[in-house]
Each structure stands twice: as structure tokens, then as C-alpha cells.
Amino acid sequence: MEYFEVGTKKDILYWSKRLYQKGMSPATSGNISVRTDKGILISSSGVCLNDMDEDDIVLIDFDGNLLEGNKKPSSEKFLHVQIYDLRDDINAIIHSHCPYTTAFACSDKMMDEPIMPEFVFYFDKIPKAPYGLPASMQLAIDTAECFKTSDVVLMQNHGVVCAANTLQQGFYSLESLRAYAETYFATQVLGGYKKLTKKQINEIRKLKLQ
Ligand SMILES: [Zn+2]
Fold first, then answer.
1. pLDDT truncated to tens, each residue of the chain (210 aa)?
2. Which CA distances in Å does 124 have to 6, 49, 128, 188?
3. 161 CA to centre of ligand 1 in angstroms
4. Residues 174/162, Cβ–Cβ less than 8 Å
5. Helix crossing, 9-21 with 167-189: angle to 10°?
6. Most exposed: 14, 32, 54, 139, by fewest CB within 10 Å?
7. Distance 199 CA to ligand 1 centre (A)
């Protein structure tokens, strides 16, 4: 794996390109950030995650004010600020409009069907934040609220947010959610999914205690 220090601009650039190249952040959608000693390093507004360079990443404070850089911070900066404010253990955030995952956000369906052991083990049920105007403080507050009980949150009619200690962990969370979503849709073609039984689910949950 390419060498870079976690929580730096290089870290952001590496995972941003992987997000785009995996089809998880189309065109100029999505934004990404890390917490540093000096503030929050965040992608700038309107940039494609695949085409960013270091100048497209700016430093903001925990009120969303620009500290360093010549670009405008992501329009969803308050979403990032609110989540960091709420959770001391979170140091990296990815917001994406990953299509298959966003399909769940754009419907009344929850991501909660026990069809794969790893989904039950790692996620169980993904909370869904109510719709809010993109870039609004209300959307940031309502979405951050869901991070009290989960590290990943769907945003109604919008997308998904993954928060983690590192961008690598956040990326894997999003990739796992996307895998669940793709598998779910594929089962529909095959006549529907078969749920794990209550006994099987309990056995999986017990693995967490080991
Ligand atoms: Zn968005």
C-alpha cells in the first residue's frame, strides 16, 4: 500500500481516489475530512474526489471557518463539524452518494435485513436521518444526532455518511454497505433473499462478546 501518514492531505487524496474509482463517489458528489491538531482538513466545494490535489483540501476550525487554503470548503462542512463535535473517537468522515447505498436512502426501505453474517455482525441496522436541505445546519444537526448510536448513517433522499477512527476504516465501512446493497438488489432478481434465522442471528451477535 502507498505510504502516507494517517490524518494528512496525502491520506485524504489516497482514499478519495479509491472512493471515486470504486464508483462510490460519482462526479463532484461527496466530501471527505480528517480531524487534526489544528482543525479539520476537508475537501473543497465542487471538486471531483478523483481529480483533487493538495490545494483542493482546506483547513477549517470547529465552527466551519476557513483557516488555511484558497478554496471554499465543502458545502457540507457543518455535517463534518457536528459529527466531530459529538464524537471524540471519530477522526475521519466520508460522505458519499454511492448509488446502490443511496437507493436505500431514497426509498422507505431500511438497511436492516439479516441476510449476511458480516452485515449482522458489523452493522445490524443502519439509522436513517430525516431529509434536510443539502448544506443546511438542520441537516447537519439531524444527521449528527444519529451518530449517537451508529458509525454509519443514511440520509433520507440524499446519501450516506461513514465515520471512523481512520479514513481506511471509513472506506471499508462504505464498501461493506455497498456490498450489502448490491447483494440485496441481486437477490431480488433471483426471487428474493433468504433471511438468517433468529438462532443464527443470536449466534453471530454472541461472536461480538468473544
Ligand atoms: Zn451530499
1. 667 899 999 999 999 999 999 999 999 999 999 999 999 999 999 999 999 999 999 999 999 999 999 999 999 999 999 999 999 999 999 999 999 999 999 999 999 999 999 999 999 999 999 999 999 999 999 999 999 999 999 999 999 999 999 999 999 999 999 999 999 999 999 999 999 999 999 999 999 888
2. 28, 29, 13, 20
3. 9
4. yes
5. 10
6. 54
7. 38
- Looking at domain 9-107+125-170, its CATH superfamily turns out to be Class II aldolase/adducin N-terminal domain (3.40.225.10)
Termini Cα distance of the chain: 30
> Of these residues, 2, 76, 113, 118, which one is catalytic?
76
